[in-house]
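Fold this sequence, please.
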Amino acid sequence: MLQEESDLSLIIAQIVQKLKGSNLYSQLERQAWASLQRPEIKLESLKEDIKEFFKISGWEKKLQNAVYSELSVFPLPSHPAAPPEHLKEPLVYMRKAQGSWEKRILKSLNSMCTELSIPLARKRPVGEQKELLNKWNEMGTDEPDLSLFRPVYAPKDFLEVLINLRNPNYENSDSLSFRTHLGLIQVPLKVKDIPELKECFVELGLNIGQLGIDDSTQVPPELFENEHVRIGQKVLAEQDSAAAQQYIRQGSPTALRAELWALILNISSQPEDVLYYEQLKTNVIQHDLLVDSLIYKDVKLTASNDDYYFVFEDYLYQVLLCFSRDTSVLSHFAFNSASPPKSYIRGKLGLEEYAVFYPPNGVIPFHGFSMYVAPLCFLYHEPSKLYQIFREMYVRFFFRLHSISSHPSGIVSLCLLFETLLQTYLPQLFYHLREIGAQPLRISFKWMVRAFSGYLATDQLLLLWDRILGYNSLEILADMWCTYTYSTNVEYLL
């Protein structure tokens, strides 16, 4: 009991410290000072009166949403005596594997830099800055020569690393359950079985209405939808993040989705947020980075060739180029098994005082990275709002899809969960695919890395992402892969 109280006190202290550096804190402080001029605020009951004022004026709800948002990304609890690196990843062999993978990525990036004789970063000439500024909203019409550039890595390269991942302290023959696991992932992680998944995702039961899915509900679909929309409107009126997260587990009405997601992610378009986006835009205009060409190349290879997303090409460039300059993204590395890559000023290699993170946000884009943004363009048409939503989605969820870790929503656990479910509940399909040399995970992995973006129709994809936000977990993807693999392959293969 004492340990639980101590852990809770530590969490509270960390969240308070985080909020003190936020814009909300300064807004609350200004509102508190302004409330002193109100006649209902009495000196003898100052604390209680200000609390009541915050409650009536809606600021208490905003504070609750901010705290709830911080709790959603708070690291899993660990032993108080554990070293700091355990917050990033508790398993040593996972940390080593991630470190080795990062070195490979950097080697690939540096090799490209050397081969093409292109610097990692340079200041744009004034004429080039003006040209870029003038075509900022029409960058899709520009056709730079990208023939010499190649993606730093593709999902299939990452899969090979995961396949070779091993725990050196573990002997497969010691465990019957793992001796019978015939999938590609060979690490002993605890993943949920069907009963546990049913308990976790209880709102997805067949007897509960789901928007966009033809389930056997207890009421006519049109009646359920009308009632669901009414409840959604009430949730938005209350502006409660926790209620919105619970509500969206059954899917979001199309007309309400943009507002609901923003509420869950605690995103509001304040003037300072727009100003911050404009500052990032200025950084893009002033400085050219090597990763800019990687972003251009990725958009051209993926979203520009997609029937759903090619019309958003300009938005994708704007958001991703600004994202690469955003140093606030670095904060998620506190609970990410990965570490931001560093670059050194010329001639100062190895001297930490001359080291900078490269790119500034610490994230090197890979083949398909732009597909994390593309579906969001259907929901948000104001660039700064679109940017904020994507950034929050990335630091909450998407980074786990290309980092090596033991987290339940990490890519390794998701791959193992997918293979376990398929082997256990669809054994005929699983063994047939193995016999013909088509391991199921090799088929499904590219879907997983993109969270199905580019593989599902957009309306279905957004319904899936509703559940990711609703459950604050990527585990739903493993079950989705299993279902999707079955529905698209079983009739053809068996």
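The first helix runs from residue 2 to 20. Residues 484-494 have pLDDT under 50 and may be disordered.
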